[in-house]
Design a protein that fits this description.
By secondary structure, this protein is mainly β. It contains no helices and 17 strands. The strands form five sheets. The chain has a four-stranded antiparallel β-sheet with strand order 3-5-8-7, with no helix packed on it. The chain has a four-stranded mixed β-sheet with strand order 4-10-9-6, with no helix packed on it. Strands 11-12-15-14 form a four-stranded antiparallel β-sheet, with no helix packed on it. Strand 14 and strand 15 form a beta hairpin.
Length: 196
């Protein structure tokens, strides 16, 4: 709050009071933007802060204890940081903490989670008894860094399995078994498996 004090001038029996009034302005620390939100991918982010009514001898300290929020850099009134890829299986939230004296402000960081998904087009392949060369394509949603789709097949009559981009090609041998038959080509991406 504001405060008042007196300076007293005395001359013999004469006293004169000089009143000194000092206003008070609270310290204010605000972030812009107030929060950071991003998707599952790794990213570089930043925000700035504004400090109103600063005090002598104090400075803003920036800290973060979250392992997935890294490379914290504090330059002037700008705070930069990196977010690692979210493979946790759910969204996550952490705080970058700004401290100025006894004032603490949390900059909230929220990262969503999106699971990888593979879709085959067409979803399945049907053919007659004759030998044939076939192919299908796939779409990969929410890819991860450092991973790739692997196609495999353990069925003896499905051969020459190959991948070119998002196209999977294969050959089907002539069916002389006496009945129809079914086999699977498995697409694997990390822990995700899809059967064609």
């Amino acid at each position: 709050s504001s405060r008042t004090g007196n300076i007293v001038l005395t001359y013999g029996s004469v006293k004169v009071t000089h009143t000194v009034t000092q206003a008070y302005s609270a310290i204010q620390l605000t972030c812009s933007p107030a929060t950071t939100s991003c998707d599952y991918k790794p990213a570089s982010k930043s925000f700035t802060y504004t400090l109103s009514n600063p005090r002598e001898g104090l400075s803003v300290k920036v800290t973060c204890s979250e392992s997935w929020i890294t490379n914290l850099v504090h330059e002037g009134t700008k705070v930069s940081f990196k977010i690692t890829e979210n493979n946790s299986g759910s969204s996550r939230t952490g705080n970058i903490v700004l401290t100025y004296g006894d004032i603490v402000v949390n900059h909230k960081v929220t990262q969503s989670y999106s699971a990888p998904a593979i879709t085959c087009n067409p979803a399945s392949t049907s053919c007659d008894y004759t030998s044939a060369s076939k192919s299908f394509t796939y779409t990969l949603s929410n890819p991860r860094e450092g991973q790739s789709v692997k196609a495999s097949c353990s069925v003896s009559w499905i051969t020459n399995l190959s991948q070119n981009g998002t196209t999977v090609s294969f050959k089907v041998a002539e069916n002389n078994s006496g009945s129809s038959r079914t086999g699977n080509i498995v697409l694997t991406y990390g822990s995700v498996k899809v059967t064609h």
